[in-house]
Amino acid sequence: MLPLKHFLASIIVLGFLFPFYKLWGLAFLIGSFFIDVDHYLWYIIRHRNFSLKNAYFYHKERPRRERDMLHIFHVWEFWVLMFVLAFFNNFFALIFLGLVFHLILDFIDLYFNIDTIYNRAFSFFAWLQRH
After folding, report:
1. Full residue range of the structural domain in which residue 52 is found
2. pLDDT digits (tens, 9 = 90+) for 92-126
3. Please, which of 5, 18, 95, 127 could form a disulfide with 31 given CB 3.0 to 4.6 Å?
4. What is the pTM of this model?
5. Do residues 42 and 52 lie in contact, with contact meaning Cβ atoms separated by under 8 Å?
6. In angstroms, rounded to a whole number, what is the distance separating the alpha carbons of residues 91 and 63?
């Protein structure tokens, strides 16, 4: 899903959360939008290029470019870590809530673009085994 769609959807939900959590609601935004920083990190590591613009267009066209990309914040091991941390701290609970929201949007997008399912690794350890 494109970053603008993630951002707009996250802002809408944040609008509902803000009356209850005030500025702590920004933790939701971290989990729901800024979690995609791993796409940029992948691009930097893979291509040794810090251009945010190039990274954006690279991932926008990725279904035809590269398979098995490791987006470290999109693997189930990270989800479990955040789930556990959510029990101990409200900040992490809001980040986890944002992460779940983000992943729901990603999986809906994946349903409509099923040909891209092999582009992303869903497990860090399985990815390590393959590489």
Report:
1. 3-130
2. 999 999 999 999 999 998 888 877 777 888 999 99
3. 95
4. 0.88
5. no
6. 34
Distance from C-alpha of 37 to C-alpha of 31, rounded to nearest angstrom: 11
DSSP assignment of the chain? --HHHHHHHHHHHHHHHHHHHGGGGHHHHHHHTGGGHHHHHHHHHHH----HHHHHHHHHTGGGT-SSB--GGGSHHHHHHHHHHHTT-HHHHHHHHHHHHHHHHHHHHHHHTGGGGGGB-S-HHHHHHH-
Tokens of 21: 């959590």
Domain count, the chain: 1
Half-sphere CA count of 75, side-chain side, radius 13 A: 16
